[in-house]
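Render Cyanocobalamin reductase / alkylcobalamin dealkylase in 3D.
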Amino acid sequence: KVGWYNAVLQPAFHLPYPDDTLAFVVLSTPSMFDKALKPFVNKERLKIIRDPVDQCISHHLSRVKEKFPDQRVDVMFDYEMLPSRKPKFLAQTAAHIAGAAFYYQRKDVKLDPWGKKKIFGVCIHPKYGGWFAIRGLLLFPDIQVPFLEQPSPVDCVSTEEKRIELLEQFNFHWQDGRYRDIIEVKERYSEEQKAYFATPPAERFRLLGLSQ
């Protein structure tokens, strides 16, 4: 419910909907690359002008909207910004309050070793660890769900030592991706997908056989 999200954030970040409004957080799993992105690129090759992943997600979420012709469905993407340069929604907070993934933050560590350093939090999924992404929010403004019960995210990095290790790896060694394997995972990105996301965005077109 939108109210769960708004309750944990300052008013500047609130979503402008009644508290009982139904919303879905959309995640992409490791198989998205082969099952969605590559077929999309092959089919829409001449229409891709922006980031291929963003366009692929946009395409699929617009198809979801089409499944509800009698409903108003608002879509927000993880990369969208407001005129104030704030993100339209805070993806990791949304994933946590929806019970989709646990958002580990500095406040989840009792004996904080970082002093005055800025430490960013990171979401971990109980099945995919860090091998997933939060892509968007689907909001159904005409559907109110007052009796929906809030699920808790699975606390899969439960020891103090592991949480410190996770935040250390994410903040200071994120390029090597070790933080993604902080727990035993069921599935991770393929080597091809790792190479794609490790490549600077401007050069990714070439990897997919697209001219820029």
